[in-house]
Amino acid sequence: MENTEPLFRQVFELPLDKRAELAARLLKSLDDLSDQEAEMLWAAEAERRLHDLQNGQAKSTPADEVLRKAERLLND
User: Fold this and answer.
1) Is 25 exposed, middle or buried (0-12, 13-18, 19+ CB in 10 A)?
2) Structural domain that includes position 12
């Protein structure tokens, strides 16, 4: 994988309007993913989340707790 840090530094130096334009174009490019590309990205995200859980960088929340919170938020 390429080191994208120099690119990120360069992008963050752009004026706000240019960064916003770039962000919009990047997001639009994600709409055009093939099913295979989307599946590959979701698999990588699932692996990253599992790694974070296993290394204590993230915590899990029981499903019943999530559902109670969602119900409370929706009913308020």
Assistant:
1) exposed
2) 1-32
